[in-house]
Model the fold of this input.
Amino acid sequence: MHNNGCGTLYIVATPIGNLGDISARAAKTLEEVDFIAAEDTRVTGILLLNLGIKTPLVIYFEHNRKQSGERIIDRILAGESCALVTDAGTPAISDPGEDLVKLCAQACISVITIPGPCAAIAALSVSGLTTGRFTFEGFLSTSRKSRFEHLNQIKHEKRTMVFYEAPHKLLKTLIDMHEVLGDRQLTISRELTKIYEETLRTTFSEAIKHFSTRPPKGEFVLVIEGCSILEKPTIEDAAALASSYIKDGLSLKDAAKKAAEETGVAKNAIYNIVIKT
Done:
């Protein structure tokens, strides 16, 4: 698994719950690489034990990605091959592995995907909502200000939206989404591919009632219907959207233009409101 003296990084998807979902190609890759970079070596160790694989592990996660990433790149440049895995699903998607892929791109290291399970796609496929166009939004920030900026940016998004959420934050997330997005259709999937897999097809108001009396358990994927084209944004909505884009680094002119394109509100009207605030 070496390439002209330089090794290769393999992005290996692993099961999100059911170990039977590991592909033959993924197992073969994990066995044949020189080492595996894992988010949690204990979690990956259980998977390898089940597969009878003894490939050495190194830890690569959010808090050591800079130092560990540099060491991994050095080893690959020296001719070793590495498989990147996350605790579950596809690495580098809403995951620190994206930084390692960027480093490989900068160093002209070959990166090969070994596709497989992905919680976002799994939840979307059983949602019953429109799947022709969708947007992956990952996790909402724990900061209230950032959360509401994010939600206001997508308030008029017409595509289906996919979010990840942890059980201890789920109810608060549903309440905040209901406040900003209104009462929409959504599906809430938990424990995908596991024994207690469940997908609720519901609305924000009903979901809030449900989880107010039943403490959420498991990891969740929320699939939310896009904004109806009948819901016309107000000039205040457009101005708020432009303001969020300015905070993201856009100039007033570019922010007003982008908000106008997304909401249908006149650019000059947005510009005049934002410049006064």
